[in-house]
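Thread: Newbie trying to understand structure tokens

Hi all, I'm a second-year student working on a class project, and my supervisor (Dr. K.) asked me to get a predicted structure for one chain before our next meeting. I've only ever worked with sequences, so writing a 3D structure as a token string is new to me. If someone could post the tokens and maybe explain what I'm looking at, I'd be very grateful. Here's the chain:
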Amino acid sequence: MNLQIITPDSKIFDGEASLVKLPGIDGFFEVLENHAPIISVLKKGELKVIKADKTETFFPIKGGVVEVLNNKVLILVQ
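---
Reply by user tm_fold:
Sure, no problem. This is what the structure looks like when written as tokens:
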């Protein structure tokens, strides 16, 4: 799936991912390929991204929102 992580200053990730773990306001949740459409608010925590090549990357965030639609994940964070 295509993943974009955008801050007010820059785009910090733009590429393919097989899994994204997000700190939702009601707890962590994961997004995988062919996930149902969703919009959610994110709280302070850490994003975990498993890239298409199976490497893991972590991004600390202060909060934000995520939209998942048609295998595209857009995350706007601070």
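A couple of things are worth pointing out once you decode it. The chain has one domain: 2-77. The longest strand covers residues 11-24. Feel free to ask follow-ups in this thread.
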